[in-house]
Amino acid sequence: MGIVGRNKIVIIGAGNVGEAVCYTLMVRRQASEIVLVDINEEKAEGSALDIVHGTAFFHQVKVHNGDYSECANAEIIILTAGVARKPGQTRLDLAKTNVSITRSIARNIMRYATDPIIVVVSNPVDVLTYVVQQETGLPASRVIGSGTSLDTARFRQMIGEACGVDVSNVSAYILGEHGDTQVPVWSSATVAGEPVDQFYRAQRGKNLDHEDIATRTKNAGGTVIKLKGATFYGVAMSTSRIVEAITEDENSVLPVAHVLSDLYGPLGGVAISLPCVVNRNGIARIVRPAMNEEETKALEKSAATLRAFMEQALQE
Fold first, then answer.
1. Is 258 a catalytic residue?
2. Residue 184 DSSP SS3
3. Out of 53, 59, 178, 210, which one is annotated catalytic?
């Protein structure tokens, strides 16, 4: 028997990330049907078969490969496709290549899909979230970039480790760009409701090293890539968490990206991460956490940096 009351999810891209996302969704019973779509059809078929063979040990989730027509009745479409940076290739050149790929994917999706929710995971995720929203014409609330969700998870894990507490007791955000200008929001970070700096001083008798944790958080992805060549498990789990908030209609607050309107002033016109209430309809609203003046300015700078980079990446 299949999983009753679950829905269909299509994953575009059967590389390391797409395969890890598919496996994670299957193990966590987050859909009754998961479809892998890739330009390399044999790779997609092989990945689907490898995962579906394991359903005998878990649940009877239908996992298979397919084409873009599978998007027609999908509730959620997850975009993981793109190319990795080649030796000597600049970040901008990579972005331009993936923008071109993503435009084509977005058009193919909308040939079949009607008002889906699209979760963008491919990098540069903020730029590609903007591209998908513009290309599909979907409401900004229905095109969700994974943004700083994984950065935030890394940040919380490192704070919890430093403070000697379970990460579930840590509330803290990385906001802004998923990249070098990301903003750690220390002013509203807490451990079980107590300001994190106060908690740490009472326990350790000294100040928490903000710079060390922020730097390690920002460089965490690069560290993994240096050690093993790619990151995919962490991003798969963060993607699964976003999917869960949608399918379970949770109204959970997650640090994800979507295109902000001009009502957000210096943050408008780009896809940038803020805490958002996520439910079955996508992003319901934005939550603005308490931030000091320095953090607010850093967030505005992050948006400006992202906007300038995006303008270059979108040039034909």
1. no
2. strand
3. 178
